[in-house]
C-alpha cells in the first residue's frame, strides 16, 4: 500500500476562554510526516501536541494555516461523512476506557473499521493476532480486558480501517510503566506492517527515542526543534530540548533504553 504525506503548514489553533480572551494553543507550526516514517511529537503537558493531533484528524479547526494529506486538505469533521481519502488518517486516543463502546463486543467494534476499509482489511481474528490478543477476544466486552489490552483493541480497530497515517495521541500515558515501551513498539510495528506512517505523541522522550525515526519538540504551542532522533538526543540545540532530556531519569546509572532493539 502506498502511503501519503502529511504536510502541516503554518497551522494556528485558538481556543476562546470566556472572560479571558483567546488562548493560542498551536502557534504557527509547520512540519511533515513522510510515507513510511515514524515521527515522535514530544513536549510537556499543555504544550499543544494533543491539539495538533486533533487538528490533523479534523477534530479541531484551524484558525489559519493548512493541513494536507496526500495533497488533499484536511477539513474539520462535520455531520456529513468525510471523504474516504481522509478516513485513511486514524487516531488511537489516550484513554482506551473512553474510546471503546462498553456495550458492544470487541469483534463488532473492529468490524466497524473493516467496513470502512475500501481496500479490504484482514479478518477480525487476524487483526487481533497482530496486536497479540487471542481470537476469542472478539466475543468479549471491553470491561473484560486490562487497560493495556483495551489499547491493543483500539489499535486493531484503527488498523482495520486501512490507514495510511496512524496517530497515537498519548496512547501509553494511562498504562503502567512496564507496559508503555512494549505498546509503543507494538504500535510502530503494526503501523509499518500495515503500510502506514506513524505520528506518535507523548511526553515520554525515553520511549519515543526507541521507536521514532524523527523527533519534533513542542513548547508553548511552537515547534522548537525538529530532526533525526539520534541528532536530537546527542546534540540538542534548543535549551528547552536540553531541559527535557536532562529530566529523563537514569536507571542505576546505566542510562536509558538503547535506540533500537526489543524491549522485554
From TrEMBL:
Keywords: ATP-binding, Nucleotide-binding, Transport. The keyword Nucleotide-binding applies. Pfam families: ABC_tran. The keyword Mitochondrion does not apply. Residues 7-245 form the ABC transporter domain. It comes from the Bacteria. GO terms for molecular function: ATP binding. Belongs to the ABC transporter superfamily. This is ABC transporter ATP-binding protein. It comes from Flexivirga alba.
